[in-house]
Amino acid sequence: MGKRVWGLCQGVSTAVLYGSLALFVSILHNVFLLYYVETFVSVYKIDKLSFWVGETVFLIWNSLNDPLFGWLSDRSFLSSPQSGTQITSPEVVLKRLQALSRSGPLFALSFLAFWVAWTWPGLQFLICLCLYDGFLTVVDLNHNALLADLAVSAHDRTRLNFHSSLFSAMGSLSVFLSYSFWNKENFYSFRLFCVTLATLSMLGFFVVSRLLRHRFQNEVQLRKNESQALTELSVGQAPFTSPEKPVTLGKYLKQLSRHKNFMWFVSMNLVQVFHCHFNNNFFPLFLEHLLSDHISASTGSFLLGISYIAPHLNNLYFLTLCRRLGVYQVVRGLFLLKLGLSVVMLLAGADHVYLLCIFIASNRVFTEGTCKLLNLVITDLVDEDFVLNRRQQAASALLFGMVALVTKPGQTFAPLIGTWLLCLYTGYDIFERNSVAEAPIATAAVPVPLRQGCFYLLVFVPISCALLQLMAWSRFTLHGQRLQNIKTLRQGAQHSHLIDVKAI
């Protein structure tokens, strides 16, 4: 019976197995984002100083661990093809899968550490955040890197991303289920719910990574046999070139600074990360002050819930557009759509309640949808980096890590700039809820009412972001014919080592 089930599992396509890994992350991560602060503040009663110390250390660790783990993963790939024996793509994929098979279950265990009090709250908060984010980073980097390593063609990468988005949407259902178990007065049911999710995630990582590793182990053995045969044929012959030294971190950063498309992309993506987290941080505030007097609590809850799952479902449609139009044109279209909707909302004003509901929800959905498409652009940058710097193997995880290093400050800027603008417009300080919203601020300007200030924040932030992004995106040249040339060069350089996802 077990062999029969294993045989059926082996018949599942690589794209489906790759996408299912996103499910085992999202079922845990969405619950973590929703409840970890409330758990430590309301259940474990963490003090304010310990909370902010933990968040500060987490901010630093969160920014540095992406490039750190990316460098540790990919530093051996940075030397040129002449520096020695070439590492084949199946070997790289197998290395990523081995990392996922180890870090995936550990990620699930670190998730469980949040929901049982096992030491002083301040210390537990710090340790849990750093452990959880460390394992999450390893999982995300290797999963994203596989997108670049499993395929080169835009069609195959879009197909992989399509399945990843589909399973991520399925994973978002854990948020809806969690409402039935969450009770900070009686935590037992919620703990059992989290144990169930973590067990499912651990089993999923174990089974899927084993299935994928089994597929590529045969491919790796075949490449080794071919390499051994070539080595035997070349005995006694002088090497074509002398070995070169591996690329150091300093040299890699210098190469990256000369990569113009990378620089324009991270400039645009920094604004995108800022806007995504701005929407996440201020979504409840906009519902409270713009719509609470005009819609029911159930409608507000529906808007909040749909904003979690709709970006994943919407992304499925965006990916079909990417196959026809290309990622560059779809992303550009989404920027123009964001600008157009924001201008229409500004002209309509804050009194059109139904239009306001649609705008608040669609603004978050389209912004999150854009974020999910950008992994495809990063994989294209991996190809260009491979060609421009004549890599031995594409340093996929490292490039994803460097993108995260530059863009993650947007997560911190979002609440800081948002609260500062709100206070500047209205005099309202969200950290002092008892303060009068219309209290004067330290300027000569007369503060606007809180509702009007929230409306201005709601429309002017996306307008400003869209204009900055369109400006940076217009300078990005890795699309059209140039992109096709880059892909042709990479496929030519690794012709005997690439993997056809559809054939597996």
Break the fold down into its secondary structure elements and pairings.
Blueprint: H1 2-10, H2 14-43, H3 48-74, H4 89-112, H5 121-150, H6 154-171, H7 173-181, H8 188-233, H9 249-257, H10 260-291, H11 297-325, H12 327-348, H13 353-388, H14 396-407, H15 409-426, H16 450-473, H17 481-493
Helix pairs in contact: 2-5, 2-6, 2-7, 2-8, 3-5, 3-14, 4-5, 4-8, 5-13, 5-14, 6-11, 10-13, 10-15, 10-16, 11-12, 11-13, 12-13, 12-16, 13-14, 13-17, 15-16
Question: TL;DR of this structure?
Answer:
It is built from 17 helices and no strands. With 504 residues, the chain is an all-alpha fold.
Low-confidence stretches: 230-243, 433-446, 496-504
For the CA atoms, what is the radius of gyration?
24 Å
Mean pLDDT: 81
Major pleated sheet: none
Please tell me what the overall shape is: globular
Number of E-type strands: 0
The level of helicity is over 70%
Q: How does the helix and strand content classify structurally?
A: mainly alpha
Beta strand %: under 5%
Task: Calculate the terminal CA-CA distance, rounded to whole Å.
Answer: 24 Å
SSE series: HHHHHHHHHHHHHHHHH
- The helix tally amounts to 17
